[in-house]
Amino acid sequence: MRNYIRISYVTFNDLYSGIYISQVINVLNLYKKNNIDIRLISFVPLKYFFSEKVKIKKEFHNVIIIPMFLNLKRWKIYRFFLGLYLKKNQIVICRGIFAANIAMLIKNSHHKIIYDGRGAVNAEQVEYGVYNNTGLENEIFNIEKKAVLNSDLRIAVSNKLIKYWKQEFNYNSQNHVVIPSSSNNNIVDINKIKRNELNISENTILIVFSGSFSKWHSFPKMIVDFKMFLNNDSNIKILFLSKPNPYINEIKNMFSKRVLVRWVKFEEVIDYLRIADYGYVVRENTVTNQVASPVKVAEYLSCGLKILISNDLGDYTEIVEQNNLGFILNNSFNYKLSKVDLKESESIINFYEKNLAIWSNEISNRYLNLIK
Question: Which candidate, 272, 197, 193, 287, places its Cα nearest to that of 239?
Fold first, then answer.
């Protein structure tokens, strides 16, 4: 006989993407696989309502999609809609500060609210202007503070994020669990076809960057590093799995045959990652990055790539250094890379499968223990 527990997972203003699949859909499927009755309640902007409904329902059937017909500044009104679906004795996992605060506005003694903290939200606003032109620029600090302090339990993507909460909001509870961004990838072989397609020889050292043009990806720093690699070693090529932008165009014009640019569907990304040697995830030293847990690290490791990482990037810098998973690009690094052999790649994949795969005991038990 199956034992069900009623849980609602709430997202607000999040659109379907690779990140959404990794951090939402995969988590929902983990609970479902363990016979836990969980429902997704997703608030999406009105103009994306129909397309998002199709995409999300294709991946997870037990879902309620609610259109956001007012702008983000009017976020409080959506408590009336969420209240229609929350019943007694519910655990409500809230992704982000708005979902958590909306749930709190209708909270009663029968609800347990879990805040899923993906980063330092106020720092993202101060450093990168994430909420500019929303009318909420000066309210983000207090909205985040309430999400952190008033939840019953918290998920943090890094220990550095817990430290941030303590410093910024005087958080002093122990009711939290750290769950780094994980991946659902399960690699069984290396796809050689893509190497031939891209004209990459077996001896070529391939560095890949997979990501968007978001400011925290630190493209100015990235291009400086990539120019250094390309100038110092003619055997290195760079692969951008990203839309073209002025920074990529600049280095592409300088090294036309050694810089490759592809923008592919999420499900195709892994085929390109599997042919690389190194995954690049170097970022500028901001609070946003200091507490982060980039899902790309787990994805790179799942494909057996060594990581090129910056100092103080969440918990991952220390993880990479302590487990010989790559290199920290700092002033003392000599920028000399060697080919990653099969034995090294298999060791990296083994580490990922034990520690960062969502289906590993290490990660899955943390999610399952949340509801106990």
Answer: 272
Is the distance from CB of 127 to CB of 140 less than 8 angstroms?
Answer: no
Q: Nearest CA to 175 among 164, 190, 162?
A: 162
183-226: pLDDT as tens digits:
988 765 555 567 778 888 889 999 999 988 888 888 999 999 99
pLDDT in tens, 306-342: 999 999 999 999 999 999 999 999 877 887 899 999 9
Q: Name the CATH superfamily housing domain 7-183+358-370.
A: Glycogen Phosphorylase B; (3.40.50.2000)
**Where are the strands (E) in 157-203, listed by range?**
176-178
Distance of alpha carbon 192 from alpha carbon 206, whole angstroms:
13
The predicted-structure confidence for 108-150, as pLDDT tens digits, reads as follows 656 899 999 999 999 999 999 999 999 999 999 999 999 999 9
Q: What's the fold here for domain 193-355? A: Rossmann fold (3.40.50)
- Sequence spans of domains, the chain: 7-183+358-370, 193-355
177: its two tokens: 């669990």
Other C-beta atoms closer than 10 Å to the C-beta of 166 total 13
